[in-house]
Amino acid sequence: MRKMILVNLLFIGAAAQGAELTLNGYLDMVRDNNQAYQTAAMQAEGAQGLVREADITFAPQFFAEARTGYDEKLQSPAIFVYDRALTNVYTMGLSQQTRVGLKGKVTYQLTDTELVTADPALQGRNQFADGALQLELSMPLWSNGFGRSTRASEDITRQQALANKYASQGQVTSILNRAENAYWRLATALEQLQIEEHSLKSAENILSYVTNMNRKDLGDKADVLQANALVDTYGLQVQQAQTELRAAQREFNLYLNRPTEQSVPTLEQLNFDVLQNVQVPIKRPGDRFDVKSSEAQAQIAKATSTVAAERNKPNLDLVSSYTTYGQADQPSKAIDHSARFAKDGAYVGVRFSVPLNLNAQAEARAGARQNSMAAEKNLSYLRYLQDQEWTDLVQKMTDAKQTLKLSSMIEKAQKAKLDNERARLRQGRTTTYQVLLFEQDYNRAQAARIQASSKILNYQSQAKLYQASLEGGN
């Protein structure tokens, strides 16, 4: 609500001061007030943060555990028989998965035990503590051999976040692109309305002139009928231009989250000289965000194929462990004893397992490969399509620029021809019909100039989708 009030105040201030609302000023308002833009921008920012989630895959992990409990299970005949064992167990350590597949884990466990018995002959109590420092290493040699699957999983996490980021950034640029087109649509509609109103005024002047001549029996009634038809024609064109203007105003306000029928400030006028001399970019400045998103999707498919292939291979892991022990009547002493490496243990071995449905494994791997190939082909096609569309856009911009130049020259020629013919009409040296034809020629030349200008502005806006800039302006 506060932003809406601010926008209205800015519009009122601009109108009061007669100031023009520039394209960049309008796009700034779109950024501040368009909820679709803000949503996409927030999603892009959030996706950028989620890219860092992939870094957690190979980061060290700290773990800790504490538990307390008792045990009253029946005892086998032994030197010492107890009724209940009270234990407190504390565990903490570090683990890390490396990029080459080696996984290491360092754990320290302290167990504090108190044996309780109701038999007076057994002295009632016995308390001791055990400490163990353990290092475990494992290395996959077949499935996920040397960390292939883990690295692929990391890539999936990163590329999925990037794909979401690029998709959201594409929405951001698309909204700004459409808003820019809405701005120039309104500016063009204003220009077109002025042309149509000027043409209508000229037609009314001709009608007034021939009517006066006919009243004095110095003219022909056919001239009056032709002039009336011209006034009606241009009146219809004015009405159509007004309809387009209202539609352009509604679209203009739509991107500001304002009431669609609310009045708009004065906009920049089309600068035809600047548009005639606009530089046509030859080299594509970058990739569109939809292509970048497809690149990330292709990487996801490739990594998913790797994960599926590794998951359906036999598991063969090289494992090893080394532990040093300590025991005493107090926990602190047990910790001290375990650090002396007086009592230790170690083992080295292998773990093996294999799924028995070999046919399902083969089909799963083949399916993953097909998905990866399909994603690569789609990306290749999008890149080709992007290059072709860029080439087409450059050619269209070049053609529109040339068209604008020619239409401006034609407009000047038609204006000079029309002015001369109007003077001849007042001298009685030509016909009203001839002036009407020249009026139509001049009107078409003006419309062609506006149309060519509108196309250049539209093509400039499209060029920004190739990451040339996220800003507006000519």
Strand order of the largest sheet: 1-2-3-4-5-6
Element order: H for helix, E for strand: HHHEEEEHHHHEHEHH
The unreliable regions are: 1-17, 468-474
What is the highest CATH level, the class of the largest domain?
Mainly Alpha
Distance between the termini: 32 Å
Indicate the radius of gyration in whole angstroms.
Answer: 41 Å
Tell me the name of the CATH homologous superfamily of the largest domain: Outer membrane efflux proteins (OEP)
Summarize the structure.
The protein is α+β, with helices and mostly antiparallel strands and 474 residues long.
Write the layout of secondary structure elements.
Blueprint lengths: L1 H16 L5 H11 L1 H17 L9 E11 L12 E14 L5 E14 L8 E16 L7 H68 L5 H34 L17 H5 L12 H23 L3 E14 L2 H8 L4 E11 L4 H69 L5 H32 L11
Antiparallel strand pairs: 1-2, 2-3, 3-4, 4-5, 5-6
Helix pairs in contact: 2-4, 3-4, 4-5, 4-7, 4-10, 7-9, 9-10
